[in-house]
Amino acid sequence: MKSVVVIGTGTMASGIAAGFISQGIPIVILGRSKEKAEFCLNKSMELAKKLGFCREYANKQFDEIKKLQIAHNFENWDNWDEAQWIIETISENLILKQELFRKLDQIVPIDIPIGSNSSGFPITKISAGLTTANRMLGAHYFMPAEIVPLVEIVLGEKSDEKFAHQIMELYRSIEKRPVLVKKDIPGFLANRIQHALMREALFLVETGIASPADIDDAVRFSFGFRYAAVGPMTQKEISGWDGMANAAKEIYPSLTNTSTLSKKLQKLMDEGKTGMKAGEGFKKWTKEEIQEVTDSYGKRLKAAFDVLNMK
């Protein structure tokens, strides 16, 4: 079985690698040093162990699975012929990503697809001017990458769609849910929809119509609850587009169409109140509250994963 090469050693790298490891697919993690790569590999192995839905290797000892995985310094590994998919997860710095892709363009066999997990830079920019840009794709995961099923496969201006379908089949084989984004637009699919929702949510908070807690409840216990069963398009197929269209005539004119960040949110950030990591965002967070919410978040995501995979 050919390996998947993950370039980078951060949080996303370990989560991405864990998804493949949990299904018994060989992984190579390349980092700036062997120590960083080994640390990432060990974290990936622990995440994979927690996933608990390895199929082919379910009855093997975990140490046997580990023998399939390789951590390496980038400069000391060149077995590119053994790879079926290469995905970079390095820092969100366009120049660094372009430098890496220029190198990969030269050293990786032309039939092996190469992807970027960048959430901000289009693959068209990352692969600009490269000879083999046709096999380069966006491959956008969502945190935590080992749990959230979606992977957005994004076509750049020169991407060949055959590589996209090849990689989508790979992701389906490890129980991920890939979607094809046919044009390299800012935010791809999910983040565009998410930001449209967040823009309106922040507007409702800023204008005093609802509290952040009530916004959360309104989403989680209404359409958010339904979306674990079906997506927005199918939900309206069920309920009827005519009802949605009539409501839209009344609602659309009152929706915010601001192109700037919420003033209330900007003020919070200017004050260093960026959320849990700072101990305060729209509310103050104690260490105990942070631990409780993050633990609950992980458990609920795993439960949601199980719901999404119900037949």
> Runs with pLDDT <50, length 5+?
54-59
- The percentage of residues in β strands lies in 5-15%
The total number of structural domains is 3
- The proportion of residues forming helix, as a percent range, comes to 40-55%
Overall number of strands:
8
Instruction: Name the CATH superfamily assignment of the largest domain.
Output: NAD(P)-binding Rossmann-like Domain
Annotated CATH topology of the largest domain: Rossmann fold
- Provide the structure class: alpha/beta
Please identify the top-level CATH class of the largest domain.
Alpha Beta
User: Alpha-carbon distance between the termini?
Assistant: 29 Å
Q: What is the N-to-C succession of helices and strands?
A: EHEHHEEHEHEEHEHHHHHHH
What is the helix tally?
13
Mean pLDDT: 91
Order of strands, widest sheet: 3-2-1-4-5-6-7-8
Shape: globular
Supply the CATH architecture of the largest domain: 3-Layer(aba) Sandwich
> From the alpha-carbon coordinates, what is the Rg to the nearest angstrom?
21 Å
Sheet with the most strands, sense and barrel status: 8 strands, mixed
What features would you describe in this structure?
This protein has helices at 11-21, 34-51, 62-66, 94-107, 123-126, 161-173, 190-206, 212-220, 223-227, 232-239, 241-251, 263-270, 287-308; strands spanning 3-7, 27-31, 70-73, 83-88, 114-116, 136-140, 150-155, 177-181. The chain has three domains: 3-181, Rossmann fold; 190-257, N-(1-d-carboxylethyl)-l-norvaline Dehydrogenase, domain 2 (Orthogonal Bundle), CATH 1.10.1040.10; 271-311. Strands 3-2-1-4-5-6-7-8 form an eight-stranded mixed β-sheet, sandwiched between helices. α1 crosses α2. The protein is built from 13 helices and eight strands.
